[in-house]
Amino acid sequence: MIRDQKRVLVVDDADDLVELLEYNLARAGFAVRTASNGREALARITQDPPDLIVLDLMMPGMSGSEVLRRLRADDKTAELPVIILTAKGEETDQVVGLTLGADDYVTKPYSIQVLMARIDAVLRRVE
User: Fold this and answer.
1) Is 108 left (phi over 0), alpha (psi -120 to 50) or beta?
2) Euclidean distance between CA atoms 5 and 21, whole angstroms
3) Position 111 in a domain
4) Per the count of CB atoms within 10 A, which of 12, 16, 26, 124 is most buried?
């Protein structure tokens, strides 16, 4: 199964959202790690690269956009799948996120079932 033993890093500064997403991902069979800001995310990715990253754009300090730019600029992380999960839902925001290299773009509020299906779809493409 796609989910067995796959590691997902959730990067968001909203603790309640992180807890809910962490619970649902773990229940679905994923190994979940979290980071509450961009710098922490990059450190976790360097230590132990995940199989997929769920990334918020609007965080204090280093934005999700900057994290994504750095990931795509580094040969070691350029191919890591990234799904943006953000409240920025304007068409231009989505185009920018996908142009920066996101594999998918999901706006908040979101359906957990749809997000899980998108995670599975992205992981299928990279296997």
Assistant:
1) beta
2) 17
3) yes
4) 12
For 76-113, the pLDDT digits (tens) are 999 999 999 999 999 999 999 999 999 999 999 999 99
3-class secondary structure, 84: strand
The whole-angstrom separation of Cα 1 and Cα 66 is 32
CA distance 127 to 114: 20
The answer as to whether 85 is a domain residue is yes
CA separation for the pair 24, 96 (Å, rounded): 28
Residue with tokens 């069979």: 29
Q: CATH number, domain at 80?
A: 3.40.50.2300
Rounded to 10°, the helix 64-73/91-100 angle is 30
